[in-house]
Model the fold of this input.
Amino acid sequence: MKKAAGHQNGASRAKTMAEIAKLAGVAESTVSRALSDSNRVSEETKARIRALVSENGYRINSRARSLRTRRSHTIEVVIAISESNRQHFSDPFFSQITASIADALAENGYDLLLSRATPWSDKAGADALSSNRADGVIIIGQGRDPVPLANYAHNNKPVIVWGADISDRSYPIVGSNNFLGGQLVGKHLASLNRKRVVFLGDIRHIEIGLRHQGVMDALAGEDSAADQTLTVSMPFDSASAYKATQDLFNEGAWHDAIFAATDVLAISAIQALSDLGVRVPEDVAVIGYDDIELSAYISPALTTVRQDTTTGGQVLVETMLGMLEGAPPSDTILPTELVVRRSCGAR
Done:
């Protein structure tokens, strides 16, 4: 009799997430979030749902769930890196924002698919949306040509981009105000009477170009400072910045400041100057962009414009998941802040 009763109890156990949700008195989405340990569900509710899952012997069937919902529960993150850029996944900025995105996705029960091929490229299988390998695409950066991205986003949903608020885009963005960031740098250098500025970076890239425009705008009102600014276009790798800085300063320091489009370029410039015997900041002030973690710990500590990758990654994911649930897409421009440290001579 006991065996028969046990068999009967086992047969009546909940077999689906919907049944677990009914027993718990919550929505099925809440069960999903609780099982992925999302911070959007209270600890009390998580404990109750886990207890019900344990009591009922419920197991998540990912394949069945995907077939039922027609979702992969995967979000693709595209970091479009070309050979000419000489950027790498190991770039600290990419590492920081990707880690933040991955954490936010995991909290909501989603996986991350990382790619370096743009979904509109000719590479076979590059479009994860069309092959149902991803439910949405997060693209980091707008590159040199915004048209292919705009066309792809117009014809494929949902797509969200870490980038700048530019005209003629067909996708929501999360990012910082790059033009304002450049302005903050220009005004700060001018306040220190540093007006012969070198800009390091490829201004053909949308975000980099806006940073350049911002610093030039700020210096335009400072006597002939804008006319004395030198723009050195280069890829994003350390070796290029090191060589360009050495080539420029190997006969002494006529320019009194460097504004590098990224912290990686700025740190390389500081090393090149040091190897030449040019003092930072006494002879040349150096300012970067991004505020990667290393910036605070080099010598001298790097003045830079902060991009909040932690909040940025979270907002990218929140906006993406909202779009998947039918919410209208929205833009988020994060605060732009100049973080002043020793490399600019203000401390």
